[in-house]
Specification:
Elements (H helix, E strand, L loop, with lengths): L4 H5 L6 H36 L23
Length: 74
């Protein structure tokens, strides 16, 4: 078999089913990589949170003062 320009640069036409399968496989690979990255990040953040010292009393959040209702003009 001789190496020709057409053999290297002219890809064979893929059927719609082959294209769909390739797209599906690529999408699944991307999603799997994202899930793996998210789980790795979650584990890292969980380890950091667990390494923090535990406070004896959690700080109470300050409640905002309620505004007085404006008088109604009749």
């Amino acid at each position: 078999m001789t190496a020709t320009k057409e053999a290297f640069f002219k890809p064979a036409k893929m059927s719609a089913q082959e294209k769909a399968a390739q797209t599906d496989a690529t999408a699944r690979d991307i999603l799997a990589a994202e899930v793996q990255a998210r789980e790795k990040k979650t584990e890292r953040l969980r380890a950091l949170r667990m390494a923090q010292p535990v406070e004896s009393q959690p700080a109470k959040a300050q409640t905002s003062k309620t505004r007085k209702a404006a008088p109604h003009h009749s």
